[in-house]
Design goal:
Layout lengths: L1 H26 L4 H19 L9 H20 L5 H22 L6 H18 L8 H21 L5 H23 L5 H29 L1 H8 L1 H14 L5 H27 L1
């Protein structure tokens, strides 16, 4: 029961990042780059306090992690200037799963037919969601969120070999934070009082503490159940967006979202079933 409760709280924290970003950028008038920078700095501060292991700042894994985290944070914030919370979360987590699927193919992992079918369904759902026509998604914000999703996929892959996940995440945040501040200084954009408060909450609580809790839960859940759990984030984000931001999902989003989530669940279920038999 405790595992279920903690997993649910973590998924709510992930979804809350979308809501907080939307509220700060679209509602409170904060610049997207300012939000990203404050979020990274706040997350770094909290993670340093949470970790007890020594921090490692060198190595290929660290370089990939830092650049991926920076690209994710920037793309995420830029996209939410125009995308609804649920729509953005769907693109984000859809691209995360597709990126990790592609990495598995590149690594020549064994791929059962069920996983291929699920992956193609998920990709088809995203193509439909992003294609022109009635109810089409704004191109550049969608592309920005897609880049964020690819970056988070690489970040997740790089983190698999971390000897201490919290310490590794703290090191990534510490190195990405000054780069985020530099990018903000170059691109520009102002802070707002409410936007800053929301960015600090996103960085310190729903990102820093949320990621730390998640990394502790993943070994207990296993890879397949952890991946399936993340499929709830777009649904939670859409519900929170409807309640808090009055965002009404379109029929196109609902149908394409069902295709994406169903495809990913189908793809993951084959590995989950085999793990249960082993």
């Amino acid at each position: 029961m405790q595992l279920i409760v903690l997993t649910t709280l973590t998924m709510i924290a992930f979804a809350a990042n979308s809501i907080l970003n939307r509220m700060a950028v679209d509602g409170a008038g904060m610049a997207p780059m300012a939000f990203a920078a404050v979020r990274l700095v706040s997350g770094a501060a909290v993670l340093v306090l949470l970790t007890r292991a020594p921090l490692v700042f060198k190595g290929r894994r660290r370089g990939i992690g830092v650049l991926a985290l920076l690209a994710y944070a920037v793309g995420f914030s830029l996209a939410y200037g125009a995308l609804d919370a649920g729509l953005g979360a769907l693109i984000l987590f859809g691209m995360v799963q597709i990126t990790m699927f592609a990495a598995a193919v590149a690594a020549k992992e064994q791929m059962p037919v069920q996983r291929w079918v699920g992956g193609l369904l998920a990709f088809g759902g995203l193509v439909w969601l992003l294609s022109p026509g009635e109810g089409a998604v704004p191109l550049w914000p969608a592309a920005s969120m897609a880049i964020a999703g690819v970056a988070w996929g690489f970040y997740s892959l790089a983190g698999k070999s971390e000897p201490d996940a919290v310490a590794g995440t703290a090191a990534n945040f510490l190195l990405a934070a000054p780069l985020g501040v530099l990018a903000w200084a170059v691109i520009g954009g102002g802070l707002t009082p409410m936007g800053t408060v929301l960015a600090v909450i996103s960085g310190a609580v729903t990102s820093g503490m949320g990621y730390a809790l998640w990394y502790r839960l993943v070994p207990q859940l296993g890879a397949s159940r952890a991946a399936v759990a993340q499929l709830t984030v777009p649904v939670i984000a859409a519900g929170m967006g409807a309640l808090l931001l009055a965002e009404v999902p379109s029929l196109r989003l609902i149908l394409s979202g069902a295709l994406v989530l169903g495809g990913v669940a189908l793809s993951l279920s084959s590995g989950w079933a085999r793990a249960g038999r082993s």
